[in-house]
Design brief:
Length: 211
């Protein structure tokens, strides 16, 4: 794998990651509710999911989902249900956080593990991720070279970009709350919750390409 191929992969990945999706929306809302520092737990969960997804594709699980209507549907509906659950929870939020400092010190806020788990589960229960990587990654793999090393490099690049972009969204969310206080947290939750429900509906209706 040469540097040109790696740069091309990074450029395309950057555009794909920056396009708002479930994990990006979680980074935004985590930043608004808990502050940037605590939101990094969610970023860690999403980064871990990147390695799981790419590792699964490397060993052929993406191809299995593409070939099996049953397992594709199981994962699809599980992912849609989880997105819908998160969306409803966001819509029911009271938007009670006044400042980032309060969010970071508030008693009873979600634990780092819970924040990380949400982002991880959103990604690994979405079959689109497996199908996307199954179609996307082989274009940057040199079949004449050892594939495990190449997949590892691509995973590291993708995960690094994912973390940086989510960090930017979390900072934006935390700054919005600083300016708008509780109303900012409330509206970010409402918008993100509505978007999550829309994504859940889209995933539930999603059909894999015919094989």
């Amino acid at each position: 794998m040469d540097i040109i191929t790696l740069l091309a992969f990074a450029a395309v990945s950057f555009v794909g990651i920056a396009t708002p999706g479930p994990t990006v929306l979680l980074a935004l809302t985590n930043g608004s509710r808990y502050g940037t520092r605590r939101a990094t737990a969610g970023m860690a969960g999403a980064v871990l999911s990147d390695f799981v997804l790419i590792g699964a594709v490397a060993i052929g699980l993406g191809a299995l989902l593409a070939a099996s209507e049953f397992w594709f549907s199981v994962l699809k509906y599980a992912g849609a249900a989880y997105l819908a659950f998160l969306g409803i929870m966001m819509l029911r939020s009271k938007g009670s956080v006044d400042t980032v400092e309060q969010a970071e010190s508030a008693v009873g806020t979600a634990s780092a593990l819970a924040i990380a788990t949400r982002s991880f589960m959103v990604a690994v229960t979405n079959p689109k991720g497996y199908l996307f990587f199954s179609a996307f990654l082989p274009q940057f793999i040199d079949p004449t070279l050892p594939q495990p090393t190449q997949y590892a490099v691509l995973a590291a690049v993708f995960a690094s970009l994912d973390f940086v972009i989510m960090f930017g969204y979390a900072v934006f969310g935390s700054q919005a709350v600083r300016l708008l206080k509780s109303s900012g947290a409330l509206w970010l939750d409402r918008i993100s919750g509505g978007a999550m429900l829309a994504l859940a509906g889209s995933l539930a209706l999603y059909r894999r390409a015919a094989t």
